[in-house]
Amino acid sequence: MKNTSEIIEYCQELYEDIDFTATRKWKDADPARKVVGYMPVYVPRELMHAGGILSLGILGGGDSMEVIHGDAYYQSYICRIPRSTIELAVTKRLDFVDGMLFPSICDVIRNLSGMWKLLMPDVYVRYFDTPQNFISGIGGDYYVNELRELKEGLEGIIGREITDDQIRNSIAVYNENRRLVNAVYDFRTAEPWKAPSWEVYLLMRAGMVLPVEEHSQLMSDYLAAAVSEDKPMRDNCRIILQGSFCEQPPLNLIKSIELSGCYIVDDDYMLVTRWLLEDVPTDGDPLVNLSEAFIKHSGETAAKYVPDAADKGKFLINAVKDKAAEGVIFAAPSFCDPALLDRPMMAGALSRTDIPYISFKYAENSGQMQPIREQAGTFADTIKLWSEAS
Amino acid sequence: MTITAGIDVGTGAVKTVVFDVQDGGAGEIKWLSRQTEKIRQRDPHRLAREAFDNALEEAGVTQEDVAYIATTGEAESLDFTTGHFYSMTTHARGGIYLEPRAGAILDVGALHGRAIIIDERGKVLNYRMTSQCASGSGQFLENIARYLGITQEEIGGLSKVADAPEKVSSICAVLSETDVINMVSRQVSTPNILKGIHLSMAGRLVKLLRAIKMKEGTVLMTGGLALDTGLLAALNEEMIGQKVSVEALSHKDSIYAGAIGAAIWGAFRHEKLAKIGALPLAS
Amino acid sequence: MKCYIGIDLGSTTTKAVLMDDKADILGRGITNSRSNYETAAAVAKQEARLGARLTLFRRGLTELTELEGIDVLMADLERSIRCEQFTEQLQDLHDTCASHISDGADDIKEALDEVFVLLAEESPALFTREAKRKSDFFRDIAGSRVMKLGEQVAKKRGVSFDTLLNLYDKSIIDVENRPPEGGLSEKFRAGLHRLLEGSPEFEIDEELAQIALSKALDVELEETYVVGTGYGRVTLPFPKEHIRSEILCHGLGAHLMYPHTRTVLDIGGQDTKAIQVDAEGIVENFQMNDRCAAGCGRYLGYIADEMNMGLHELGPMAMKSTKNVRINSTCTVFAGAELRDRLALGEKREDILAGLHRAIILRAMSIISRSGGISEGEFTFTGGVANNGAAVKELKKLVNENYGEVTINIDPTSIYTGALGAAEFARRAVIH
Amino acid sequence: MSPADINEDVIKESSMLKQKEMISANYEKLTSAPETGQKVASTYVPGNLNELIMCFDMLNNLPEINAIQNGMRKQSGAMIQDAEKMGHSEDVCTYVKADIGNMAKGAIAPNGKPMPVPDLLMLSYTGCFTFLKWFELLRDQYGCRTAMLHVPYEGDGVITANMRDYVVKQLKEEVIPTFEEVSGVKFDIDRLRENLKNSAKAEEDFVWVLESAKNKPSPIDAYFGGVYYVGPIFTAFRGTTDAIDYYKILRGEIEQRIASGQGPITPEGEMKEEKYRLVVEGPPNWTSFREFWKMFYDEGAVVVSSTYTKVGGVYDYDGFRHDPDNPLESLADYCLGCYTNRNLPMRVDMIEKAMEEYQADGFLINSIKSCNSFSAGQLMMMREVENRTGKPAAFIETDLVDPRYFSPANVKNRLESYFQMIDQKRAGGSPSRAA
Ligand SMILES: Nc1ncnc2c1ncn2[C@@H]1O[C@H](COP(=O)(O)OP(=O)(O)O)[C@@H](O)[C@H]1O
Ligand SMILES: Nc1ncnc2c1ncn2[C@@H]1O[C@H](COP(=O)(O)OP(=O)(O)O)[C@@H](O)[C@H]1O
Ligand code: SF4
Ligand code: SF4
Ligand code: SF4
Q: What secondary structure letter does DSSP report for D175?
């Protein structure tokens, strides 16, 4: 059996490989195989899986990519992820991708979908507009039809029909995957010193480029290994990281937060893995089931409208309670509309509940960690020195 | 008797103090020794060791006598310490030690400015830092001083005799530099240039204070620029200008605020850990 | 004769080009823009006129006789004149410094005098054929020598080095704004005499040469039309129709130097621009850095200051690098912090420097890409940073990686590109 | 969008006076709502449902317009800074911050009276993500009722039946019932039909006005002047007879200008010579509107077509008119078809077509720091348009209502270089390299 550091080393290799060699290899093994890229906030990966398509989660270029052409597409006051994503495309690193899905997170991604159409007229590109109306008969119906249109699009890529049974089967596979993701998160919540956040992060990142079954295996291996490994517990406080659901911070930033005295006990990285809060039923009309799961059982995030004012921020506050967190760190990408516009409301909700928080901004290629360490460190100091418990 | 040491590794200098602290800071606090060492392109960690040794010697104690060696600043990875506190935490505590009336701390160093609201126990309540752009930093002032041919110690005195200061407008230090050069060519006097820079910096610092809702009371300047009397004067002028009824003070030992805070928090933490029986070994 | 002058008032340097009505360049002049723009323009122009005299002299001489080694002769002559100018400015600096000494400080005065005696003694050596100068500007040359000699003298005499330096700091700006004036003809004649007397290697009759020189000096260099451009152009004492945007001037200038140019990159002190021109040198598109000055020439200036090195030494050191160090921030001010950080992490200076150079060029590559990339024709790199070998090396590498094999032009006189374009605009304003 | 009061010293045409009257009457109605008891709905310009709102006797308050007004009065800067002090990020849309800062100051309308707290936030989520958050923020503050209308994005450049059904269903089952509840007025579809009929009439003349710029010289400036012309049709007047009258008057004035070969009117009088005809993409800057405009007319540059005059609805490109016979479907199509709700390839097509039809010399983008909806992707649009038309393009960067991001020297420098570039290109006459 592998130990955690071997598993994480493998994940790190995948993470650092901006040429997506692992996914390419998977595809090259069989000429019939197809790959569809998406930005991992929320898309119904089950549909791709049902068509035998590997869904590739694309998270920009990170801090190791030198962006040269991306700046020719974006002004300086737009976040970084679209420019490094374009850079990936322009430098032909995504030339093996047969289709692209752009989830409805913000105007930048929305417009990126159009740019992709202009840039690659031959690739299947879909702006996947999920409903902001959460009533089954309205938003739900609309969504079922969107799913149907997407399914037809995917069928166009693979040249055959995707059956309901295939979808049901895929739903089950993803239910399993989600259970494991949640198990890893729960384990970290319970014993954060045994599952450092940067490891958990890399483990989830691996799920972006691997077939889902392999990812599930990787997670159960990790869990098995981590439980038995002994790592020292540090004098850290427990925080939840919020606002990083799209452009991701560099790995060093995640490490820096932990180094400066904060255990991250929950986060919103790669939401697609945990967007749905419950299992999707495997019987009945699978598209309706997916639609209902989205409408009824998805988490709260800045990219989603909250119909009832009273519910705003509840999800986060409940998470703080459930995970016994001592504070929240809002870490959002610079120029990120959804996260930054949401922040004052979330912060307000926290203040009303006496939950301490701090906030800062980053970019996927932030190099100077000193200011981050300092703020996170001060936050940790304050909790450690002044909280009643310690 | 609890001997503790505070080591503040900055971008410009390493500051070290040794204290004797009673009851984790609640009782008597005795200052035993102090050391500053300008870094000047040397290895800060080596300097920190040297400064620490010198401070021990001056205080007449040995490393074994020290209950808690606390660092602050750029020193998380120093290898001979007990624990690390972050700058704002330490400046807050050091500030309240130096000036018990202070309701806020303005820490202005080589590359940064921070405004920190504190309570009477030195707890950080709220803070703001200057953003990435650096035209309001000590470094910039240093560069300009070099260009104008004056020493850092002279800046304050000159600034205070200005009669018609001209503010620099740009956010960017590079562009501000051009502003200054243009001023020189327009024969604006050195005091007026310096005062102009001081006022621009002060304007930004007052904004920080307002951002964290510091509306009245006393604020203590700490960090290297606390020694710049011109900046202090400009700060007080700007407060009046921006209708903030806050008085800014400096202290002759302001530059040690971080190190002092570290030493006192070290003692506090030492007590706390002793109580729960989790004393770490001072290596 | 009719002359057309282009003046490029840069943020760092001011350049002038003087051309005749056949668009031949007669002379170039450069000075630093640090102080007064008007003075800078005047000085650059004066320098360009000096260059023009040399060109005319050379033309006259070649008409008269076929002289071997004429290049050497011209270079020697120029150095000789520059040496003379330098001596004159030193004298001015000496006097100005002395005027700042407070009464009774005789020891300071004596020390100062000694510094300047030493300086005067060594200055001819700064202008020999072999000498490698740190810079072309009086401030830089004099400044570094005063520093060095001042330290020695101060130590020897036990006076304050700071006081000596302060005298210099107080005086240099005034002196810089008072360029050596007049008597150019005299300097030329005397210089030529000294030269021919001292170097028998030139097989030429001095009388003949002096006649050619007189002819060259007698030509009236009429300022038929002057066009200004560059960062400081709005402050130029010219009416609007005498001003062209630096973009147009750079485009045209690069076209004149390399007619097949289609893309121009200019990295100056405070801005970086990428310009696309057509076959006629007409600008089709351009991009500049935004308000932030990160990654421009001044960035290297800060680094040089931080490392206590001369600007021209940075490139060579960076070329020694053996390892990739990635630098993400090109903020000029934080460059120093980044540098210290990296040094503390144990990285080597040359590797960090190479990383910094790469960072600058990466930014420039983005701007090029934004302006439309390099699609056809030649690519020309201009501006002060083109003097930096490491930057050039990085640029060549990245251009070839991203756009394939492209002809890359870099000219030693590329810093004059904008002024050249401006001069051509001046010429066209009259000729067309 | 209709800052009529700013230019009163200059523009004395009767259309302007008419618009001014309409605006001040509307502000009067809004600010006296607490006394009159009339209910107020706040909503956004793109996809605004003015005809529907009127069916419930409610007033329509548009926070974007208030932000513009405050921008032109040079008050927005302080409001934005106030909002930032309250914890709003410096990176986000300044309309939102100007609005929130204004509220903190008591939300004073241009007539000096306080604005009423809206009875309903009509969140028409059309073409801009920020809308969603903006009203969540207001809801947080005001605690008032919110109706959400999610208008899907035309990601593939078409309105599908699914999208239209979804919007219509939301109107029927969510929006209209909420309006009925808040206003106490029963929905009457015939009233809506009547309003839509009025809209269509005004829209005819409005399109005629926009297209008058095809003349040479153009009698209007379709950007700086255009922002006045779109006023009534984009705001609280669409569907009223006032709007019909306004466009009739305006049309008459422009007909006269065409007949006498006159160019557009500027704050400094008639524009002299039309030297450059431009198509402009992106909203204008409001804090230095006049200064900005001057940089154009001083150089003889006229904007003959702009995309900003399509944010509140696209009427010219594919001939959309509000249709009384299919009222809800037509409202849905209107919302779905707003400029920023169309995908980038469509936006490029629209611009390309305008460049040709209006015989433009160049294409200019004023990129707004605040607005990702407009700005993300504009650099690529610029390239596409350049490649397709072979005409030179330029890019400037400013902001809507944040004075800190309007750098006059910078903008002027770029514009001057650009105009010189067009000149030089004309003189050189070399064929463009862009095919
Ligand atoms: N005597 C002095 N007068 C004025 N400024 C001073 C003086 N001494 C130091 N400084 C300024 O203080 C800065 C260093 O401040 P410090 O708080 O030590 O910064 P850091 O903690 O980042 O090292 C230097 O940049 C310098 O400009
Ligand atoms: N000899 C040199 N070696 C290396 N770099 C140089 C040299 N001369 C100038 N530079 C670089 O060029 C920059 C100035 O470029 P320049 O084109 O003169 O700027 P501007 O046009 O803005 O005045 C300097 O900041 C420096 O980085
Ligand atoms: S980082 Fe934020 S603004 Fe940028 S694409 Fe992602 S969600 Fe949109
Ligand atoms: S170069 Fe200037 S504007 Fe740019 S980040 Fe640095 S200080 Fe700020
Ligand atoms: S982001 Fe743009 S469209 Fe949206 S509210 Fe702001 S200015 Fe309007």
A: I
pLDDT in tens, C11-57: 788 999 999 989 999 999 998 876 567 788 888 998 899 999 999 99
Distance CA C342, CA C324 (A): 12
Query: What domains lie within chain A, and their CATH numbers?
Result: 18-162 (3.40.50.11890)
Q: CB-based contact (8 Å) between C262 and chain D?
A: yes
The answer to whether the CB atoms of D430 and C278 lie below 8 A apart is: yes
Domains in chain B: ranges and CATH:
3-93+256-275 (3.30.420.40), 100-250 (3.30.420.40)
Answer yes or no: do C329 and A368 touch at CB < 8 A. yes
Question: What CA–CA distance (Å, rounded) separates D61 from A59?
Answer: 40
Q: What is the pLDDT of residue A101?
A: 97
- Nearest Cα residue to A197 out of A135, A134, A262, A150: A262
Confirm if C29 and C11 have CB atoms less than 8 A apart: no
* Residues of C with Cβ-Cβ distance to D434 under 8 angstroms: 284
Contact B140 C340 (CB under 8 A): no
> Is omega for the bond preceding A371 within 30 degrees of 0, making it cis?
no
* First-last CA distance in chain C: 18
Looking at residue C286, what DSSP letter applies?
A: E
Strands C408-410 and C378-382: parallel
Query: What pLDDT score does D3 carry?
Result: 46
Question: Which atom of ligand 4 approaches the CA of C291 most closely?
Answer: 3
C426 sits in which H/E element: helix C417-431
Q: Do D220 and D229 form a contact (C-beta atoms < 8 A)?
A: yes
Q: CA B227 from chain center: how many Å?
A: 9
ipTM attached to this prediction: 0.82
Query: Which tens digit of pLDDT belongs to each residue from B35-48?
Result: 888 776 677 888 89
Domain tally for chain C? 1
How close does chain A come to B5, measured CA to CA in Å?
Answer: 18
Give the model's pLDDT for residue A234.
77
Which residue among C280, C285, C286 places its CB closest to the CB of D428? Answer: C280
Mean pLDDT (whole number) for A132-146:
97
B43-48: long-range contacts, CB 8 A cutoff, minimum separation 24: B43/C344, B44/B9, B44/B14, B44/B74, B44/B75, B44/C344, B45/B9, B45/B75, B45/B77, B45/B78, B45/C344, B47/B14, B48/B7, B48/B9, B48/B14, B48/B16, B48/B75, B48/B78
Given CA atoms A241, A242, A246, A249 in this order, what sign does their dihedral have?
Answer: negative
Query: For chain D, which domains are there?
Result: 3-191 (3.40.50.11890), 192-426 (3.40.50.11900)
> Which among A71, A365, A367 has the least Cβ separation from residue C366?
A71
C190 assigned to some structural domain:
no
User: What is the pTM for the complete model shown?
Assistant: 0.86
Q: Does C265 fall in a domain?
A: yes
Q: pLDDT-derived band of residue B281, with 50, 70 and 90 as boundaries?
A: very low
| pLDDT number for residue C34 | 61
Task: Evaluate whether residue C14 is within a structural domain.
Answer: no
Q: State the smallest CA–CA distance between residue C342 and chain A in angstroms.
A: 11
CA atoms of C56 and C216, how far apart (whole Å): 5
- For residue C393, give the CATH number of its domain: 3.30.420.40
Please count the other Cβ atoms lying within 10 Å of the Cβ belonging to residue A287: 21
Report the C-alpha gap between B82 and B84 in whole angstroms: 7
The alpha-carbon gap from A71 to the nearest alpha carbon of chain C, in Å, equals 6
Identify which of D257, D306, D247 has the alpha carbon closest to the alpha carbon of residue D19.
D247
Quick check: is C372 in a domain? yes
Distance A293 CA to ligand 4 centre (A): 47
How far is CA D348 from each of CA A108, B195, C370, rounded to the nearest angstrom?
17, 52, 18
Average pLDDT over residues A280-289: 97
* Structural domain for C405, as ranges: 259-410
